[in-house]
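hey team, just a heads up i'm posting the complex here instead of the shared drive bc the drive is being weird again. everything in one block, sequence lines first with there labels, then the predicted structure for the whole assembly after. its two chains so it's a bit long, scroll down
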Amino acid sequence: MPPARQESVVNTAAALLIGNELLSGKVREANLFELAHTLRALGVQLVRVVMIPDDVEAIAAEVALLSRQYDVVFTSGGVGPTHDDVTIEAVARAFGVATHVDPSVAKLLSDAYGEACSEAHLRMALVPDGACLTTDDEVPWPTVVMRNVWMLPGVPEVFRMKLGVIRSTLRGPAPFLSRAVFTRLDEADLKPLLDQVVAAYADVEVGSYPKWFDPSYKTKVTFDARKPERLESAVSAFMELIPREAVIRVE
Amino acid sequence: MPPARQESVVNTAAALLIGNELLSGKVREANLFELAHTLRALGVQLVRVVMIPDDVEAIAAEVALLSRQYDVVFTSGGVGPTHDDVTIEAVARAFGVATHVDPSVAKLLSDAYGEACSEAHLRMALVPDGACLTTDDEVPWPTVVMRNVWMLPGVPEVFRMKLGVIRSTLRGPAPFLSRAVFTRLDEADLKPLLDQVVAAYADVEVGSYPKWFDPSYKTKVTFDARKPERLESAVSAFMELIPREAVIRVE
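-- predicted structure starts here --
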């Protein structure tokens, strides 16, 4: 079993979204939300996201930086066969290694394309030297993982297929627990109440999100923590402070 | 007329998307695509996007870096009245200045909230010392611009209202011109053709985008340039190389 398949406990993650088409407004980015959701459910904290063009030097520099600063890094995009697909090469450069054609991926490609399988197709079998190939039961096509960097595709439908391997391979130190209180107060009126809770519960993340164009509530207040007793205690403290009639519901 | 209202020619832009809720997968980011589209239409090149949590030090460091590296920076989020709204303070720190309550914004707030207008409401009138307030005819509420940093709201409906001021204030050195060829070929088959065009037209950005789950075409090839004659010449060169029956349409 390759190392990347062993379940790894990681605290922090970063995502690197690659593609000129995302920055030029031609394509609406569609992978980050799915990744963020998946990581959150695993208890892994996504801390930083960067979006850059299809530039091999820029990608290599960013991967080198992010892979040192965070436990795990996910790239999205730039893994096809054409001139603007430079992610594999960039990740190799980031770690100071070369690339090679992986024979198992080359076989999948030649099985799929038959006699039409060209040198260009085989570019999709390139992996950085030392990379792991990881799969799950549902998707035979492997995901390339170099040290702590997962190279995921940009095409949203294919990106989604890879989330299962992430779920079966990574987990955080403990799940995040969340509560939300939907209120009739605007943010400015909530501020003094929230400040008291924030001051007393440094280990609980408190967020407030006004809904400007939704008549069903004015501000949603969220509480997030890894320790259930601290979470419940923070929510209770807030409920003591807010007038009962200002609360619409608690989730 | 404040300086930010004069039409400024800028080449490059960066965006800083701020908010724990974006990274935790609670909220799907919804402003970037609109901004990218707006900038592209103005001929401004969006080069880098970064997403980070509501952390005043992290935001300040990122703003300091991006504002030195790019002609203009747009922040989104963190401009409300609560404890997790720290963008104004962070931008002030990035430029080594303090903040103050702007009297014209304070008046808008007290007019809107009347006697209910509290200290918390007035936090929404905070601006970095030396910032410009810019408005357009449609939205009387001003946008705060500090040097080359535009502080935009996170709420998507309000973010969109600010795009008009960007459109009337900034423009790129020349518009981007785009063409797209929809083909029946897959990317690997297109690669040798694209390589020839890319080698001959370094000033034309060539992209190829496979559509895995759309029967209407296999790969869309895009051409982008600022010089119309170079664009048309690159498209013609590609059309000479690709078999006629492989082209579905040109846009």
